[in-house]
Amino acid sequence: MAQSAKILIIDDEAAIRRLLKVSLKSQGYSIVEATGGKEGIEQAAMNHPDLIVLDLGLPDIDGLKVLKSIREWSRVPIIILTVRDSEIDKVALLDSGANDYITKPFGVPELL
Q1: What topology does CATH give the domain 6-110?
Q2: How many CB atoms sit inside 10 A of residue 10's CB?
Q3: What ranges in 7-95 are assigned the alpha helix state H?
């Protein structure tokens, strides 16, 4: 059996993590979760995910700092999933290494 792609979800909202986990697992993906920025950086280093879904409004470290920290040692694709919808935020995050930017609320097909 082929190993499924591993996705790391870094989001402090349990409902969002649960929605993503159920939706992505149903598509055959393996899921790793983190509820904060520090934990997310650690999980990225330990698990070497194929994709990271990253919220910006984390309780301990802002998502931009998490993105920049991971970009120091990894080129893993990172999708920003956040309520922040200003053009300035989008441009800053894409310029800092994010691969895509999706605003909440979102549809699961949009993410897939």
Answers
A1: Rossmann fold (3.40.50)
A2: 30
A3: 14-26, 37-47, 63-71, 87-95
| pLDDT for 85 beyond 50 | yes
The 10 Å Cβ neighbour count of residue 13 is: 14
Helix, coil or strand: residue 95: helix
Q: Which residue has the tokens 């990271």?
A: 52
**Edge to edge, what strands does the sheet with 51-54 contain?**
30-34, 6-10, 51-54, 78-82, 100-103
pLDDT digits (tens, 9 = 90+) for 2-21: 468 999 999 999 999 999 99
Mean pLDDT of the chain: 92
Tell how strand 6-10 and strand 78-82 pair up: unpaired
DSSP 28: T
Say whether pTM exceeds 0.85: yes
For 69, residues 6+ apart whose C-beta sits below 8 A from its C-beta are 41
